[in-house]
Amino acid sequence: MIEHEPASGIFAGYAFGQAYDEMFAGAGRHRPHYAGIHERLCELPIELWRERQRAADMAFVTQGITFTVYGQAEGVERIFPFDLLPRLITAAEWATIERGLVQRITALNLFLRDVYHDGRIFQAGLVPRTLIRQCRHFRPEMVGVQVPHGCYLTVVGTDLVRGPDGRFLVLEDNLRVPSGVSYMLANRQIVKQVYPQLFERYHVRSIDQYPRTLLAHLREIAPEGCTDAKVVVLTPGVFNSAYYEHTFLAHEMAIDLVEGRDLLVHDNTVYAHTTGGLERVDVIYRRVDDDYLDPLTFQNDSTLGVAGLFNAYRAGRVTIANAVGTGVADDKAVYAYVPAIIRFYLSEDPILDNVETYLLDDPRQRAFVLEHLAELVVKPVGESGGYGMLVGPHSTAAQQQEMRDRILAHPRNYIAQPTLALSTAPCLVQDGVEARHVDLRPYVLCGRSITVVPGGLTRVALQRGSLVVNSSQGGGSKDTWVLGA
Amino acid sequence: MLSRVADNLYWMRRYIERADHIARVVGVNVDLVFDRAPADVARLWGRLLSALCAAPAWARVDRGGSGEALTDLMSIDAVASCFAAARENARQIRQHISGDMWEHVNGVHLALNDPARRAAWAEQPHEYFRTVREAAALFDAALNAGLARDEGWLFLQLGLFLERAGGTARLLTCQIREVWPAVGSEHGLDEQLEWICLLRACDALDLYRRRSGAELQQDRILRFLIADPLSPRSLRYALDHTSRALAVLAARVPDQPPIVLASGLTAAIDSAQAEGSDLAALVSAIEAECERIHRTLYETYIDHRRWAAPVAPREAPWTTP
Predict the structure, then answer these.
(1) β-strands A424-429, A77-79 pairing
(2) Which of A351, B55, B131, B263 has the least CB density, counted as fewest CB within 10 Å?
(3) In terms of domains, do B221 and B136 share one?
(4) Averaged pLDDT, A250-272
(5) 3-state secondary structure of A37
(6) Which of A275, A280, A317 to mutate to test the interface with B (most CBs of B within 10 A)?
């Protein structure tokens, strides 16, 4: 470590020691791989950084990279707040993450196949069958369905956080329709535009291949016997909060972006409605939740899906990616069993650990949690996007009481975890650089093989001290640089 | 190509052309009414509104009854909503247009809704008309430079020329209805000015001068705007291009029945070059034909009954139809 005088200048407001910090090993001592950025921050006046930040924000607005916030005035489009300073991950750290994710996703894919077919893991007594049956995203319709090539998971966005000792832990597995990858790619583009010189000092691994890799994997899992598969992206439509991302991916992969109303099913075959009549569709990369895919099988008042799609799927005539029913494996209660799942299917120890998790239908764990609500984080099991969670240390007595009542009414619907001091990273604020909490969502693509894209979305809790990084809850993001060896 | 995408391309182009059209005709009218008597002003604005099919909507907004408010309220909002609609269409087909085109439409949309710029434009309407016209021209240039001449291109062409023909035809109809009966008689300066303004409203004043000379005769102007085959602003030109796009489309999409221009229409336009033909009837026939093509286009390619198209045979499930 290189010694420096105590923080001053641009770092005057930097809080050291509240958690593992990505840049500083201690007050004023930056980690070696951050040297280039640290030097630049000290060299260049804050006005210049602010100017570049404005340029970056404008680039997002003019490119229309926006999302829609639910629960606010209709049609409010916002940019996803972006912080200029990149978050660095060393080659050695990345190697561990990569191995850990490949292992975890391989095991979860085997787990999904097992859950919907033989149930060996239930017979072995490692995961209670009732727990799975109670999962909100368990799809009894999927039992016995042969998924093309046994590939349940195609796109996974696993949320990682760093513990106090700097090790990466898995916070959540997002196995349904993880979003945010367009921000990962857009952030990199904007960084290249806004400060190309700084970029050259580092050997940063490229992430531009993401759309091509995704398309290659989607083609791999086309139904048996299908040559030259027609692949489409299925979007809920222009009012979805991630619509920009859907158009972006379809554009980059040069395939059709379809809505439910563009498709129809006839004789268990899926067709797109084109100017020349009907054209067959083989692989659907869907960005629509299971519930809305097919009104005949799932939610029957849904207009986003395609009537008869599930039957075509069950008949093996079309691939849906990710498969239907994968949500059972990212249920937050099932999460607690993932280490056991990895050991069961792969006979290996997990490379990436879980965050300690309390299951609230266990009376002893529940009693402990109810006593310590003020210190713990409580999350609903079937939700995503940070909706409905309680962050104990930042909650009022009334909120805790409300959560207590809800837990007692439906203990299976919640889990609790210790409040993690998420690692902090330097972020540009009005008068300088301050520490903000971050997490990391790398993207894993699978077909007949697994690709971990060397990068990810670093989400930032922009409010000082906040631990919530979800974009729907006021979080922002940073570019993530995985450094070459 | 997805029917919905064809629909979005078609309407995106129509709305941009419509925004350009509104900015142009309103801008011309602002000049025209500058030194007219109040009764004339009301008449000219009324004619403009009916040429834009906007009279009923305007009647709901216009409390004071003066045309003054028209430029800063109606035209900015009308153009802004055209761009908003074009942007909504563009947003759904971002993978079919270039990033530059999207950023351009998005940028214009944001500018048209910027309160500071709107306030400035209310003072300087011509600044505003110029901005819109430049935006439309830039968009057109980006399309021309950046898009493949594939099926999508044909829907853009159809959107452009059907919208342009419709807009021009309505302008002509309104002008003929009010000013035409005076044919042959001596016109005052004001009437002459109105005919010049018609040419400007169609963006065809210079074209007319080069093609027909400096002499401004109302029947010659009308015939020029209807029948000149070489001027990109004439009805004839728009119909020719529409007809060509439809023929190429029919060849590209052989599964659907071809759409052809009503027989005899081109011949009728050609004979309009002769004296004494009923130009008013001809213009409304052209307007009706544009409507018919629009409807048929929908029935054939976009909103066609889903089961009318052949379905791949069950024996060969993996061949792409």
Answers:
(1) unpaired
(2) B263
(3) no
(4) 93
(5) helix
(6) A275
Q: Do A103 and A170 form a contact (C-beta atoms < 8 A)? A: no
Tens digit of pLDDT for each residue in B158-179? 999 999 999 999 999 988 887 6
Tokens of A321: 């990616």
- Considering the domain architecture, whether residues A246 and A310 belong to the same structural domain is answered as yes
Q: Are A480 and A438 in contact (CB under 8 A)?
A: no
Residue B116's domain spans which residues? 1-147
pLDDT at A70: 60
- CB–CB of B236/B161 below 8 Å? no
Q: How would residue A94 be classed by pLDDT, with cut points 50, 70 and 90?
A: very high
Q: What is the pLDDT of residues A290-340, one digit of tens each?
A: 999 999 989 888 888 999 999 999 999 999 999 999 999 988 889 999 999
Nearest alpha-carbon partner for B199 in B79, B76, B24: B24
Q: In sequence order, which residues have a C-beta less than 8 Å from that of residue A347 and are 6 or more positions away?
A: none
Check: CB of residue A84 under 8 Å from CB of residue A52.
yes
CB neighbours (10 Å) of residue A175? 28
User: CB pairs under 8 A, 24+ apart, for B308-316?
Assistant: B308/A277, B309/A276, B309/A277, B309/A278, B309/B255, B310/A277, B310/A278, B310/B255, B311/A266, B311/A267, B311/A271, B311/A278, B312/A269, B312/A278, B312/A280, B314/A267
In this structure, the answer to whether residues B123 and B248 fall within a common structural domain is no
Half-sphere exposure of A61 (CA within 13 A, CB side): 11
Residues of B in Cβ contact (< 8 Å) with A316 = none
The structure tokens listed for B193 are 């000015």
Q: Are residues A231 and A309 in the same domain?
A: yes
Q: Is residue A401 part of a domain?
A: yes
How many CB contacts within 8 angstroms connect chain A with chain B? 94
Tell me which of A7-21, A97-111, A347-361 is least confident: A7-21
DSSP-assigned states of every residue in A444-472: EEESSSEEE-S--BEEEE-STT-----GG
A71 has pLDDT over 60: no
> Contact B106/A63, CB-based, under 8 Å?
yes
Boundary-marking domain end, from B112, B131, B147: B147
Structure token pair of residue B31 = 């000049």
Q: Which residue has the higher pLDDT, A76 or B237?
A: B237
In this prediction, residues B285-297 reach a mean pLDDT of: 94
The amino acid present at A152, given as its one-letter code, is Y
Percent of chain A with pLDDT over 70: 93
CB within 8 Å: B311 and A274? no
Under 8 Å between Cβ of B125 and B76: no
B317/A275 touch (CB, cutoff 8 Å), yes or no: no
For range B167-193, the mean pLDDT = 75
Q: How far apart are CA A469 and CA B2, in angstroms?
A: 38
**For chain B, how many residues are written?**
321
Q: Which residue has the tokens 């990569």?
A: A98
- Report how far residue A281's alpha carbon sits from residue A272's, in angstroms, rounded to the nearest whole number: 7
